[in-house]
Amino acid sequence: MNLFNVYPLFNINPVKAQGSFLWDDKGEQYLDFYGGHAVISIGHNHPHYQNKLKEQLDKISFYSNSVQNELQNELAEKLGELSGLEDYSLFLCNSGAEANENALKLASFHNGKNKVLYFSGSFHGRTSAAVSVTDNPKIVAPVNYDERFIRSGWNDISQLEEVFKKHGHEISSLIIEGIQGVGGIMIPKAEFLKKIKDLCEQYNAVLILDEVQSGYGRSGYFFAHQEFGVEADIITTAKGMGNGFPIGGVLIHPKFQATSGMLGTTFGGNHLACTAAIAVLDVMKEEDLIENARIMGDYIEAEIKGLPHISEIRRKGLMIGIELDRDCAEVRNSLLYDHHIFTGNSNDKTVLRILPALNIKKEETDLFITALKTVLKSLSAKEQEILTHKVH
Ligand SMILES: Cc1ncc(COP(=O)(O)O)c(C=O)c1O
């Protein structure tokens, strides 16, 4: 059997990882400045994470959600404490898309309405409702299109007001990323988020904050939107939550009433997934990783600001978008193949996406900074050479 070929692949086969480094099958070392797509929050194979999972494997790996699982309560308690959202409740699932799917459904159960407002540039996952509120025609199949899903402009307050004026009484929920990741690290303006909150309250629409990529300390806050003091009705999380172990979560405001059977999943909240997620929170707290995300993010920005070919840096903590004056592919490939550093791109071809582990060390960021400087300077040198040739 062949694999269904949907991923463009780099010809690199990592077989070992530790901290912020990977090694391939030829023994070559790579620096991971993309965290496997914002997933590696506490570094690869953190000893506490490994030990906890190994210990759990010797006890029990899985039983269904029809029995008590104390690990789920421990996870909820620790998550409430670290995020400051002790009065929210937690529903556990397996991925970001599934978390959003449940959030949209819960909102609709809650207020009985069926329209959803989303934003240009958004990415909320590839399952049914999640992809319907994703702004990328290439991944939305005809079966997912429906007039119930209404798009409004990013950071555009007047369009938002118009949409609410027209459809407000039918809007069940509004879904927005804490910071748009796939869209190219787009940060919402404080007044935009505040207006969203006001309109959601005015029209009894549920405010869903998708923190799948921007959450779990990446922005220098536990959840990115917390910087603005805006209270979400539902928050979704995944990626960094399990440091690679598949797990997603829906954090639900106390105003929502749970009823038996309302939501459900076979694998969500299983023993191994909870163990991984608990270990992540332990390390984040113990090693003060949210603070480290702020410090290292500030440092990287200060060091790369003003380099040639960078037109803008958009950043919160270690969620960094470096917009270039051209398609970033050449720079990204050179970082990977010439300097052995993984970085990411985004739907905006000019934006290099940088999402290292939250426990990245200064000397590791220096490797990236030096490499980026070299790559960008060599671009300038090449251009200069072409110009000189033209003149002669
Ligand atoms: C903001 C956001 N929401 C949802 C998702 C979907 O998560 P998953 O791939 O775990 O389904 C992603 C994945 O990139 C994301 O960035």
From TrEMBL:
<dbReference type="InterPro" id="IPR049704">
    <property type="entry name" value="Aminotrans_3_PPA_site"/>
</dbReference>
<dbReference type="GO" id="GO:0008483">
    <property type="term" value="F:transaminase activity"/>
</dbReference>
<dbReference type="GO" id="GO:0042802">
    <property type="term" value="F:identical protein binding"/>
</dbReference>
<dbReference type="InterPro" id="IPR015422">
    <property type="entry name" value="PyrdxlP-dep_Trfase_small"/>
</dbReference>
<dbReference type="GO" id="GO:0030170">
    <property type="term" value="F:pyridoxal phosphate binding"/>
</dbReference>
<dbReference type="InterPro" id="IPR050103">
    <property type="entry name" value="Class-III_PLP-dep_AT"/>
</dbReference>
<dbReference type="Pfam" id="PF00202">
    <property type="entry name" value="Aminotran_3"/>
</dbReference>
<comment type="similarity">
    <text>Belongs to the class-III pyridoxal-phosphate-dependent aminotransferase family.</text>
</comment>
<keyword id="KW-0663">Pyridoxal phosphate</keyword>
<dbReference type="InterPro" id="IPR015421">
    <property type="entry name" value="PyrdxlP-dep_Trfase_major"/>
</dbReference>
<dbReference type="InterPro" id="IPR015424">
    <property type="entry name" value="PyrdxlP-dep_Trfase"/>
</dbReference>
<keyword id="KW-0032">Aminotransferase</keyword>
<dbReference type="InterPro" id="IPR005814">
    <property type="entry name" value="Aminotrans_3"/>
</dbReference>
<keyword id="KW-0808">Transferase</keyword>
<protein>
    <submittedName>
        <fullName>Aminotransferase class III-fold pyridoxal phosphate-dependent enzyme</fullName>
    </submittedName>
</protein>
